[in-house]
């Protein structure tokens, strides 16, 4: 868990080339925020990362899962899911193979 006032976004290895190699991105927040607001903040610095996570309409791509405090945001409020200071957000990108 991050320090109070910080939300940590865990980046999977497949997406790290789009975050300058960072495995974790930390954001100082003054109160609750949403997954969409965090993705907007990441996208402002790492726009290609954001395009890999969301489609043209801003919706989460179907092969990307995001978890807040261990819960899939699709089972909660989607990108409107609230993230409290101190919580971790984990991004998981599915890998297809055959």
Summarize, please.
With 98 residues, the chain is of the alpha+beta class.
Structure description:
- The model has no long low-confidence stretch (mean pLDDT 92).
- Strands 2-1-7-4-5 form a five-stranded mixed β-sheet, covered by helices on one side. It has a two-stranded antiparallel ribbon with strand order 3-6.
- It has helices spanning 35-45, 47-53; strands at 6-10, 24-28, 33-34, 64-68, 71-72, 82-83, 88-93.
- It starts with 5 loop residues before the first strand and ends in a 5-residue tail after the last strand.
- It is built from two helices and seven strands, in the order E-E-E-H-H-E-E-E-E.
- With 98 residues, the protein is of the alpha+beta class.
- 18% of the residues lie in helices and 28% in strands.
Name the descriptors.
98 residues, alpha+beta, 5-stranded mixed β-sheet, two-stranded antiparallel sheet, 2 helices, globular
List the strand order in the largest sheet: 2-1-7-4-5
Helix content: 10-25%
Q: Report the structural category.
A: alpha+beta
| Unreliable segments of 5+ consecutive residues | none
Count of DSSP-assigned helices = 2
């Amino acid at each position: 868990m991050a320090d109070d006032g910080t939300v940590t976004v865990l980046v999977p290895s497949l997406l790290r080339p789009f975050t300058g190699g960072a495995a974790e991105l930390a954001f100082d927040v003054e109160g609750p925020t949403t997954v969409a607001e965090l993705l907007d903040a990441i996208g402002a610095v790492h726009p290609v990362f954001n395009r890999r996570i969301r489609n043209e309409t801003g919706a989460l791509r179907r092969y990307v899962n995001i978890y807040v405090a261990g819960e899939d945001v699709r089972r909660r409020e989607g990108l409107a899911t609230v993230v409290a200071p101190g919580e971790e957000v984990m991004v998981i990108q599915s890998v297809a193979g055959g």
